User: Fold these one by one.
Assistant:
Number 1:
Amino acid sequence: MAFNIGLSGLRAATSDLNVTGNNIANAGTAGFKQSRAEFSDVYAASVNGSGKNALGSGVLLSNVSQLFNQGNVNYTQNSLDLAINGNGFFQTSNNGEVSYTRAGYFGTDREGFMVNNFGYKLQGYAVDGNGNLQNGVISDLRIETASQAPRSTTELSQTFNLNSTNAVPTSWQGAYDASIAGAVDPLNPTAAEVTAAEATGNATFDPADPTTYNSSTSTNVYDTQGNAHVLSQYFVKTGANEWQMNVLVDGRNPATPTSTTPYSMGVRFDANGQLNTSSLTSSAAFTVDTSGRFTLNDWVPAASDGGEPPVWSSNGADASPTGILVDMRNSTQFSSSFAVNAVSQDGYTTGQLAGLEIDDTGVIFARYTNGQSNVQGQVILASFANVQGLTPVGKTAWVQSFSSGEPVVGTPRSGTLGALQSGALEDSNVELSDQLVNLIVAQRNYQANAKTIETESSITQTIINLR
């Protein structure tokens, strides 16, 4: 009996040494979870059960469990390295075979799929053709590395302040006065004569002469080929609370590149300095909607031949088919210097992939050289009711088993799932000092059980030597 007991002890100590040695060997393995050998005593069973004075029959390795406590997060220089801070596993697919891991070594393969260092594809929620996340539809995550197509400008939003203390430009006023002086009754001109006088005043506008206007601002807009064009607005005060807005694109008439005559629109403000949108009127150049926004019509994107003087003509691209919708309803006329407080437009040129960012909820952003960013997908995490029931399959991965239960899949930071840290890896949770102490204990156990066998052998030899 003592031989079997000692032998079971040797086996147990050997198992303990193997488990501890495996922990030590993987102390530098990212995402590794240390194991623990668990033992139980053994008693010989009888027909009616063991008596109260039954002798033990040794020890048995009952289980090797893994401890899924958090490892340290180590920061790297690779934005696609991912660490989970909290609960959950990455879900990967190897030709449809799903496994789970905490090791966040990820990169891209030649087809743009996010893969780990074994070529297994990371899974998550992909995006549709419009860049919208398809929540609930799990697929292999793929990074679109192709150039981003350009987008023509369809909307322009502005907020600016015109200085109410500005005087009417001398050139405009002089041309206006001269025209009114030629009216049938200069002291009581007709509406048509006033309109003609204003047009005469506007004719004095020259973008190269700052004395012919009060303020100006410029914004880049884009055609269908991603070419940038400068849309300039010049504001000429024509009276109390009244302004004339002149618009040029690339210094040319928007619809006729060979002409420098601007698009023009009258702009009025109320006594409180707020834009009077009802005063905006539609024309061939602008179409005003009921909300007070207006559309710049018939823009023909143009280019210069580079000559002296330059000759301008269509560059072969188109403007947005709906025109450029301009919203400046929040603009004001106060007694302060001219200032543009906000401006934005939705067009952009073509862009090359410049980098990737992954936030703590797993959303993957692609940054392009044109300043744009697109959502490329979202990483998902999986959790299990019984993580001890997962089956380890090597390569720092586990697969689902009956004991683990079904995976609960969600996005990082949802429910009990942890957060993602981009540009970082989770270190092994092995504590080397503890493992070295375990080696000493396992070695002593092995020596003690060997001594049991040695002692039993001596006793047996003594009995054999009796005469």
Note: The mean pLDDT is 91.
Number 2:
Amino acid sequence: MAQVRRLEPASASRGDGTVHGAWEQFVRGEDNIRGVRPEIAISWQRCRDQYRVDPYLTEAPVAVAEVDHALEHDVVIAELGFRAASLAHEISNLGGIVTITDAGGRVLAHWGDQATRTVATEANMAPWFCWSEGATGTNGMGTALMSYTPVLIRGAEHWCQAFHEWSCAGVAVRDVVTRKPVAVLNISCWRGELPSAVGSWLGNAATMTQRILRRRAQDDGAELMAAFNHARPRSSAPLAAVDSAGRVVLADDTAGVLLGIPGSTPAPDPAVRWKPELPEFIRAARYAAKQATRNPDWVGSTQIFTRLANESTAISFRPVFLSGHLVGNLVSFGVDEGDPLPTTGPRTGGEAPPRAQPQRVVATRDNRMVLLQLPEVSFAQSDGNDVWLSTDDGRLRSALPGLDKLETELNDSGFLRVHRQYVVNLSRVREVERRCKGELFLVMDDPEKTMVPVSRRNTPLVRRALEI
């Protein structure tokens, strides 16, 4: 379950000239934005450089017509709507409004003070309009979709100047398996301050709603285990049951060795499922889940390098459903059947079409956002929830939360996960040291000649990548 961070109450910074001055400079193309919180600076960077949102936009655009979410998420959205409605009276008395959106930032419903709703409607903060960052810039709903914790957006922190008189706080409810957002609960005030209890309100609502997803995920894990136990006596191939995010619920002993995880050890709870340190396998599993969601009869296969093998191994995916809802796939090793999965470059099992390669990495230092070219980054190291980058400009904090997300972003750009705590730029490896028990250490080309450990399960992958 996602941890909920306490939000500070909104303050007079809504009219803070420092933030507004920084906004004016950033809109003009400058990157030195003193006095702006790092999470806001990062959002601004996405809005300006990635999404190219017009900072002088005055209203949100109409949302796309398609509904692209799983049917079981309707129950979650309904529950979140119930909790939003229960807050409406108290928020209305404070002159605020409550909104919920789906995972695309489309407003589904709003409640609260009628006068504030009228002002909000003029900016299209109303059902069927889109408030994702890509559509409407930095705002409580869209920025919450990009964050794993509650967000607070005050005054000039909004990307669009027309919304600088608003204060908003939002939190996303995320799928406990895929970690993708399902919906957002948001509280907004116009020309007023958010209540000090806003963080508690949002956190409690998100936590209670998320329990539905956790219970469903546990049921899904039990169904995957049942499918595994049913198929195991009928198959001579190594077998694993994986969820839609590529995490393993149960694997036999042989499959466990190939994946580098404990064999015959059930993990139905999504909080403790096994994550193979094999990016190819995880990408293939996620692609297979997408295909099976679209076509329940789909079966596919690909080739990957497993933990101990020097040659690629065939794996096939067969979907498992519960009440018409995909819960994951059974994966057979050494079996080649069904549709071939697409490839990305020299590896197999990637999603199609290949995503655009990142041109730079965003980091933060004090109140500045630092835009790094990929060759400037030597390696990344996780420290709890933080990720630190070793760069030509010193040690900087990554703007992306979590090493898994950074790995996904950089995996096809010459970076490789070599340890649960490290992702390295392969072009910055200067030496490889082998210890007496076969452990590998990568000596990086930074001035300190930092030695990065390689986990045993990743050693074959690192050897292949470095051709040693």
Note: The longest strand covers residues 181-190.
